[in-house]
Write a structure and sequence with these properties.
By secondary structure, this protein is mostly beta strands. It is built from one helix and eleven strands; from the N terminus they run ββαβββββββββ. An eleven-stranded antiparallel sheet has the order 1-2-3-4-5-6-7-8-9-10-11, with no helix packed on it.
Length: 209
Amino acid sequence: IPSRIYGGADAKVGGKTYLLFETIMEEIYYEGSSQVAQRKEATVLTSLVGMSWDISGSTTGAAKFGYTQRDFHEDEVDDKSGLAWEVSLEWMPDEVSMLTLESRSLFQESDLPASTTFDRSASVAYERNISVFYDFTGGFDYTVKDYTESASEETKIKYFLGLNYYPTRHLGMNIKYEWSYRNLNLVNITDRNLDYIRNSFGFGLNYAF
């Protein structure tokens, strides 16, 4: 059960350039009393400082760098700390399309017995309005997770394509295809059933009043 306190501020330093400050504190508790759950309970503090800018009216970006400290409540679990960053860039080559690049690194909570993972990710997303009725989306995500209590590593890759259709101002429909791949190298575990390649399709319908 995470509880989060967030604080942020920015200061204009000239033109369309801003200094950014951000602090996030989380308290993580589990309802269960298992040993695995207790080993994950922690206080997490992340502090970031950076800058955002508007380069040409069509290109904007932001970069934040800082440090994450994860203090575990169990004395026998070693505390973890390390660098964190978030970098993003948005480019609009014309009035109907946008390219977004993002990269980040931070400590995350593990869904396996290890207490934490050190994640690095990069993504590319593209959006384009084909007409007043259609717009297209596509992208790529790449993530590497290092399990901090062992030499285990997880790699995830995802591609996606989507098409949105707006027959009226209030009604929207969308279809999406996603290909995803997972490779999990766990120390002393040879069960390859944890790896996968997935093809998935989705369809959505929304109505705005």
